[in-house]
Structure formats: structure tokens, C-alpha cells
Design goal:
The protein is an alpha+beta fold and 613 residues long. The chain folds into three domains: 277 residues, FAD/NAD(P)-binding domain; 80 residues, no CATH class; 135 residues, Methane Monooxygenase Hydroxylase, Chain G, domain 1. It is 33% helix and 14% strand. The chain contains 16 helices and 24 strands. The chain has a five-stranded parallel β-sheet, covered by helices on one side. A four-stranded mixed β-sheet has the order 1-10-9-8. The longest helix has 26 residues.
């Protein structure tokens, strides 16, 4: 089979599009519960909803469900299994500890669900075919292995004793298989583009969604009694340069904030949009592989300097190097580890963790042997990323939709889980909240009438989706993305003032008015990238609106206003919300602890909870 590059080099032409083109053609799907996003949260939402007899479930995924999402390739540590028999803390204690650690700025509702139901969600993976125990006794004698249960406990979280290692590469395929077993209709390669409101009225009950096939271009209309948003977070806003340094996050380029933008356009409230931070992980400016430190994936890997001198992680600083106390480069000293710790890190952590697996393969193909070879730690050599290269919050605390104790958004019939909520977390958070939202959405659907969708709303969205294919010249998606990123670097980076932020908002409005109409796409893949750019554009506008609204600096939000330098004053410890009403962004607020008593409210909303299914 001839590759794309061979055609370009040898014949000077691009290949023909390999799929039939069906632009403008429509397919309508009717269901009870529609799940948008087929990652960990989406699969668990679909499974949970489908366990309710008589509930039809459909799931839409932009990529291929079998390996899609941040957890698709794998994962190796399941945090917050607080109801496990060996846990040292209660769900309420641990949840409050997490909330306090973030200064109150995380999703307390989602975190409590994670702490209270995460262990149940973990156990349910086993009968599906997911590997959660050392059943082959491969790790007998290794640190953290419990010989009675054959679980392996990550010792980094010794104070909770509730972070469990697992074989994450086994999870995603069995989740898809379980969806199929339960009758979930899976629609792969479908990008969701908008939510449909009852009778087309913005802010009304959500009645379904639209999308298009990223291979054929076919337009999809989904009618549903309840919708669960489980799309990925956001990444590449401040940096985009594929030729020099890759994307700005170790997540997929497809993480373009589509779900948050869809919800906002439909009238749902979003929050914590002003949070951003320095680029940290796998940016293209840095190596991803961890060769020393205390990450839960790579526990207790000792570091040495270039003279072989042991050096603590805290001592691995620029100051130590400049004063001659440590010599670059630093190295991860795998040979110095015990056999048990080496197996835990290299044979389990590097084999199962999604962001390390590819790097492990490259190292081993080059002949690396962890029993005799060191690994260079590049972090200090490469230094920090430039201050204007930012990320929308850390991977665990970015903005998203506001949710209540049913994980319903401010729109009736619209639920959210995983990275779709504001202030989300990791693998176990995605599965626990997905599982929770699915059962709540099914309950809602069973007690709801058939919605009425609007042909006019669908027609408007269809015209928006296909606008880029009506032209064959202008600007392409990479140019638009680069322009958005440069604007955010200039006007909404480390330096924030009223003047700069307003200039940034004006510049984004200029892009929307004068450059978006010139956007063109020559095939369905480029059409998908173009529509992702439009999501990125709206997401960027939301960041600036929220930044203008917060007139105080915050350490916990990594937010500094030069013109409002006071850090975390009591009156500003609250959520800034944004809602779209009649084309205008409305700013609101919520108390920081609006969820109330964690344990009591969870119990009040889950009186029939039976634990493991």
C-alpha cells in the first residue's frame, strides 16, 4: 500500500479521499439517553444508563471508542478508592482534604462521587475483563502488593492507602465490549457540533444534538430525552506550532473544548474559565518520560547528578547547579532500585501508563535495560516554558460546566461527567462520575416526555457546519489556530490587566468577524479541524470574559491581575459563572461551597444506591 508521503514525494500529488463524500446528507437517530464522548467517562455513562431496563442508549465518539480518550492507551493508578477495606480515610474526610488543597477551587460534587463510588467502579471493571489484580503473581514481594487481595497499593499515598495500581491497557477495549453487550449504539468518527434545545429555545431543556461524520461528512441529528456530555477537556489554546514543537499539551489535538462550548451555546452556565497555568507536561518543548521524582506512576526512582552523587528531588534546582552543588545532567538511577521497585515502575508503570508507554517502547528498541542503564532527566536542562505559553489550568482543575448533585448542568436534561465538569480529576474521577451521570440521566429519561426538536435550529447549525466546504480558498485551520494562539499569548498570558484583556477580546472578535468567514476545508478531516478551531475561538473568548470578571488575583487559580494584585481576598472566594443569553455573555457567581454538606447531600440523592453492580 502506498503511503501519503510516498505519493507526495514520488508522484507529486495527494491521495484521493478514501471515503464516500456525503456532505449535506442527513441521518436521524432517536434514543432515550445520548452520550457525547466515548472515553472513560462516556463508556461508563453509557453502560450505567443501559443497565436500566427499557432505556435506549446511543454514544457518539469523535475517534474510535476502542482506544479513544486520555485513558484509551492505558493508565496505572486509580486514586481515591476510599471505601476499600484498607483505606485509612472516609470519603468525606478525603474529599474535604482535596477541596482544601485546591483552596476550594475544584468540583466538590464530582470529587465526593469519586471518593464515595470510585472503589465500586473499580471493582466492576474486573467482571468486564479489566485487570485490576496481580492474578499471575508476577509482583509477589514487590512494594505495595497485598497478598490477600492481590491488589497493588501505590505507596505515594500512604496517608490514605487508597491509590490502587491497575493494568490500564486492558480497560478501554472491555468497556467498549460491555457497551455493545448491553445494546448501546456506538457511533464512531462522529464529531458533536451542537446541542438541540426544546423547540429551539436557548436555555430550554436539551432535546438532542447534531454532529457530522469526520470521514464521509454526513450530517447527524440525534433526538434524545437526556444527554450526557463526556467530551475531553481543552489544551492547545496558547501554543500551536506543529513544525517546531508539537502541540501544547500531552493530550490529543482533538481536545478542543467542544462539549463546553456546545453547552455554553445552548445556554448552560460554565465556570472556572479564568484558570490557567504554565505548561508543564509533554509540550514538545519538554520530554515526557519521568526519570526521577515522586509521581504516583514512577514511585521512588532515585536521582543522581552527572558525577553519580545522589540528589533529592527537592535539590534538583537551578540554584544547586549554579552553586556547583550538583552537576548536570541529572539521571534516573533505575539500577540502584530494588528489584521489586524496578518491576513496579518499569514493568507496570511504564507499561500501563498511557503517556509513558510509547516512550518505553522507544527506549527498549534502542537497547535500554533498566537493570544496568540510567535515564537522563531533561527537566532542568530544558528549563521552564516561556511565561506566555500557558495551559487552561492543570489537567485536573480546568474550567467546565456547572453541575448539581445529579451531575445535571443548569439546563434540564443535560448531564456532565469526567473532564466535562469544571475542576475535574483523573482516571477514577472519569469512571466514577461517568457511572453516576449515566444512572441519573436514565432516571431522568424514564420520567420525561418525548422532546420536540426545532427544524430551524438544525438548519442554522447545518449551515454553520458546512460553511468551510463552500469555499476552496482563503485560510485553513492551521492559520486560524495559530492566530488564536498568538492573540492569547499577547493579551491573556502571565500579564493581565483590564486594558490587555479588552484588547484581546476585541482581537478575537475581529478574528470571528473577518477571518472565520474565510475559513475553508477541502475534506471532512479538515472540516473537523476547522470546527475544532471555532470551539477554541469561543473557549478563548470565555477565558477572557472570566478573566475580566475576576477583579482579584488568586494563587489557587494561577491567576494574576496586575491591576488587582490582592491575592485571594475573602470576598472573591467564589465561582465566576458565564451564561449566554440572547447573544450576550452574562456574568454570575456561586458560593464556593454551593454543594453543601457532602455526605448528607450524596445520601439524599442516592437513597437506592446498591454499590457494585
Amino acid at each position: 500500500m502506498t503511503s501519503w508521503h510516498e505519493l507526495m514525494e514520488n508522484e507529486g500529488r495527494t491521495p484521493e479521499w478514501p471515503y464516500p463524500i456525503r456532505y449535506e446528507q442527513e441521518q436521524t437517530v432517536e434514543t432515550d439517553v445520548l452520550v457525547i464522548g466515548g472515553g472513560l467517562a462516556g463508556c461508563r455513562a453509557a453502560i450505567s444508563a443501559a443497565l436500566n431496563k427499557g432505556v435506549r442508549v446511543a454514544m457518539v465518539e469523535k475517534a474510535a471508542t476502542v482506544r479513544s480518550g486520555a485513558g484509551g492507551p492505558g493508565g496505572d493508578h486509580w486514586e481515591e478508592a476510599m471505601t476499600a477495606p484498607f483505606s485509612k480515610m472516609s470519603p468525606k474526610q478525603r474529599c474535604q482534604e482535596i477541596i482544601d488543597g485546591y483552596g476550594g477551587y475544584c468540583c466538590g460534587i464530582g470529587r465526593y462521587i469519586q471518593c464515595r463510588e470510585g472503589y465500586d467502579a473499580f471493582l466492576e471493571m474486573e467482571p468486564m475483563g479489566g485487570k485490576i489484580r496481580d492474578t499471575e503473581d508476577e509482583y509477589i514481594g514487590c512494594p505495595g502488593r497485598d497478598d490477600k487481595t492481590k491488589f497493588i497499593i501505590a505507596s505515594r499515598y500512604a496517608h490514605t492507602n487508597a491509590c490502587l495500581r491497575f493494568w490500564g491497557s486492558t480497560f478501554k477495549p472491555v468497556l467498549k465490549k460491555e457497551c455493545e453487550r448491553l445494546g448501546v449504539k456506538i457511533y464512531d468518527r462522529i464529531m458533536g457540533t451542537s446541542l438541540l434545545n426544546e423547540k429551539g429555545i436557548q436555555g430550554a431543556r436539551v432535546a438532542g444534538a447534531t454532529g457530522f461524520n469526520t470521514r464521509t461528512g454526513e450530517f447527524m441529528i440525534f433526538k434524545a430525552k437526556a444527554v450526557v456530555l463526556c467530551t475531553a477537556g481543552i489544551g492547545s489554546i496558547w501554543v500551536f506550532n506543529t513544525e517546531l514543537a508539537g502541540i501544547s499539551t500531552f493530550r490529543s489535538r482533538a481536545n478542543s473544548g467542544d462539549g463546553t462550548v456546545m453547552a455554553f451555546r445552548a445556554g448552560a452556565a460554565v465556570t472556572q474559565m479564568e484558570k490557567s497555568g504554565m505548561l508543564m507536561l509533554g509540550t514538545g518543548y519538554k520530554h515526557k518520560i519521568d526519570s526521577g521524582g515522586n509521581d504516583p506512576v514512577f514511585e521512588n526512582v532515585p536521582m543522581v547528578d552527572d558525577n553519580g552523587k545522589p540528589i533529592a528531588f527537592a535539590e534538583a534546582s537551578r540554584d544547586a547547579v549554579l552553586k556547583g552543588k550538583a552537576a548536570l545532567p541529572f539521571w534516573g538511577d533505575f539500577p540502584a532500585m530494588s528489584e521489586g521497585w524496578r518491576k513496579i515502575n518499569w514493568d507496570l508503570g511504564y507499561r500501563e501508563e498511557s503517556t509513558a508507554l510509547a516512550m518505553r517502547r522507544v527506549y527498549e528498541e534502542a537497547g535500554y535495560n533498566p537493570k544496568i542503564d540510567l535515564i537522563m532527566n531533561y527537566n532542568l536542562i530544558e528549563g521552564a516554558s516561556p511565561a506566555h505559553f500557558r495551559f487552561p489550568g492543570s489537567m485536573n482543575t480546568r474550567g467546565g460546566v456547572v453541575v448539581d448533585w445529579d451531575l445535571m448542568t443548569t439546563l434540564n436534561g443535560l448531564f456532565a461527567a469526567g473532564e466535562q465538569t469544571y475542576g475535574p480529576a483523573d482516571h477514577s474521577y472519569a469512571q466514577a462520575t461517568g457511572r453516576y451521570s449515566g444512572r441519573k440521566a436514565a432516571e431522568y429519561a424514564l420520567n420525561s416526555a418525548e422532546p420536540t426538536i426545532s427544524k430551524e435550529q438544525i438548519a442554522v447549525e447545518k449551515a454553520r457546519v458546512y460553511a468551510p466546504i463552500k469555499k476552496n480558498q482563503g485560510i485553513e485551520w492551521k492559520e486560524l489556530h495559530a492566530g488564536i494562539s498568538r492573540n492569547m499569548q499577547y493579551f491573556c498570558s502571565e500579564y493581565k490587566t483590564e486594558r490587555l484583556l479588552k484588547m484581546g477580546l476585541d482581537a478575537l472578535e475581529d478574528i470571528e468577524k473577518n477571518w472565520v468567514p474565510q475559513l475553508y476545508a477541502l475534506d471532512p478531516h479538515k472540516l473537523m479541524r476547522s470546527l475544532e478551531d471555532l470551539s477554541l475561538l469561543t473557549f478563548s473568548q470565555l477565558i477572557i470574559h472570566a478573566s475580566l470578571a475576576r477583579k482579584a488575583s488568586s494563587r489557587f487559580l494561577n491567576f494574576e491581575r496586575i491591576d488587582y494584585p490582592q491575592i485571594d481576598p475573602p470576598e472573591w472566594k467564589k465561582w465566576i459563572t458565564l451564561t449566554l443569553e440572547n447573544g450576550n455573555v452574562k456574568v454570575g457567581e456561586l458560593p464556593q461551597d454551593y454543594w453543601g454538606n457532602l455526605k448528607e447531600n450524596w445520601e439524599a440523592h442516592n437513597k437506592d444506591y446498591t454499590g457494585v453492580n
